[in-house]
Amino acid sequence: MTAPRPPLPPLRPLDEALAELLSHARPLADVEAVSTFDADGRVLAQDLVSALQVPPQDNSSMDGYALRCADLAGPSPVLPVSQRIAAGAGGMPLAAGSAARIFTGAPIPAGADAVVMQEDCELLPAEGDELPAIRLHTLPKPGRWIRRAGEDVRRGAVVLARGARLTPASLGLAASIGLDRLQVARRPRVALFSTGDELVMPGEVAPEQMKPGSIYNSNRFFLRALLHRLGCEVSDLGIVPDRRDATLAALQSAAQSHDLILTSGGVSVGEEDHIKPAVQALGRLDLWQIAIKPGKPFAYGRVQDAHFIGLPGNPVSSFVTFLLLVRPFLLKLQGVSQLAPETIALPAHFTWPKADKRQEFLRARRNQAGGLDLFENQSSGVLTSAVWGDGLVNNPSGQTIAHGDLVRFVPFSELLA
Ligand code: AMP
Ligand code: MG
Q1: Is 295 touching ligand 1 by the criterion CB < 6 Å?
Q2: Using 50, 70 and 90 to split pLDDT, how confident is the model at 2?
Q3: CA 250, 251, 256, 262: dihedral to nearest 10 degrees?
Q4: pLDDT tens for residues 173-217?
């Protein structure tokens, strides 16, 4: 007689598992300087403090004429044009009782307090020795069409804080305060491998030559792309066979020079699942199995000095657990301060009559009526759902959904950036 199997430990709730996972993610110590041109997506390792005000001086936001409002008398006053100031030039103080021709971005001359648009006045050509003049059709108020010095950035202001992830707009802002190089966290080095003897590579085996039981390795493609989006340096170790010795060897060599070893598949409970015992043999496993659907067989541990994360093999499980768990982990390694994605409350335009014990992440998409439609097949193998959907409905455990219920929606735009 065989002894009864010991009961499996209870699945860890997602919030608890995520908190534990993040507690292991200590930000990488190394910092590097990169050109501002190349810093999109990187994480700032310094506060960006402005040494100047932006704009540096009061300037015109229109093509027109700079003038002093106090010089204007009568319903359509006329002022001689005493100078011309183009963008990039420095003007002279404005002569009393005159206007200065001025262009967008050019500095406001001393003494002027408003700009009139050229469309709001008429140019009177010069006659004899006289200067050309303008006749105004509308009377400006002081401050009109003037962009004030420092209205964008004040001197000494922190325009971006350490821990911010750089975006195209933030690169422009950094450049606007004169920064051509930025201190950023170094890229996490990630070793990626897939497990599964059924896996073949597109390009190596044509569809008509597939042996029975083979499938294409799809996880490798989206995981590599997701890692790149998060600023990682990826060593793609390809497909590791479902054998204990091969798994041990792959983990051991990957641990040498990487911050994280990321695997897909082979982390469940079958005899062909070698990842978990191999990690336990070489290091330790801190987390295994989370109460979410899809994505239960998620694992975290250490192999020597490297972090280890094992993702489930089913493509949607792999994709969803990456977004919910690996993404914040990699961001935290880089020192990112804002880790949680923004969620929005939206009405379900579908029903979900069967509650699950696990917290569910349903592939859904926003419709024109401001609600959410659900992809009809929520199986963890159906990758079409992740392409059709534009986000995930975060459905608590034990919860059914009726048509019109407000549900929590996490857009993929929050998770893929
Ligand atoms: P496993 O977690 O290894 O038991 O795999 C679970 C399911 O996911 C099986 O149907 C596998 O064939 C499939 N699978 C595992 N790895 C991949 C992969 N890299 N690409 C596509 N499907 C996979
Ligand atoms: Mg497998």
Answers
A1: no
A2: low
A3: 110
A4: 999 999 999 999 999 999 999 999 999 999 999 999 999 999 999
The answer, yes or no, to whether any atom of ligand 1 lies below 6 A from the CB of 196, is yes
Q: Which fold has domain 344-415?
A: Beta-clip (2.40.340)
Distance of alpha carbon 175 from alpha carbon 205, whole angstroms: 48
What CA–CA distance (Å, rounded) separates 154 from 138? 33
Determine the Cα–Cα distance for residues 417 and 413; give it in Å rounded to an integer: 6
Question: In a mutational test of the pocket of ligand 1, which residue from 205, 219, 242 has the highest number of ligand atoms less than 8 Å from its CB?
Answer: 219
Of 282, 281, 276, 234, nearest in space to 259 by CA: 234
pLDDT of residue 3: 67
pLDDT 10s digits, 342-351:
999 999 999 9
The residue whose C-alpha atom lies closest to atom 10 belonging to ligand 1 is 314
What band does 4 get if pLDDT is binned at 50, 70 and 90? Answer: confident
CA distances to 211, 318, 415 from 152, in Å: 63, 43, 30
Residue nearest to atom 23 of ligand 1 (CA): 313
Question: Of ligand 1's atoms, which has the minimum distance to the CA of residue 381?
Answer: 8
CATH 2.40.340.10 range(s) for the chain read 344-415
| CATH numeric code, 59-147 | 2.170.190.11
pLDDT tens, residue by residue, 365-387: 999 999 999 999 999 999 999 99
Ligand number nearest to the C-alpha of 194: 1
Query: Which residue's CA is the nearest one to ligand 1's atom 14?
Result: 313
The CATH superfamily holding the domain 31-49+160-185 is Molybdopterin biosynthesis moea protein, domain 2 (3.90.105.10)
Could you list which residues have their CB under 5 Å from ion ligand 2?
196, 265-266, 313
Check if 312 has its Cβ closer than 6 Å to any atom of ligand 1.
yes
Q: Which CATH superfamily is domain 14-30+187-333 in?
A: MoaB/Mog-like domain (3.40.980.10)
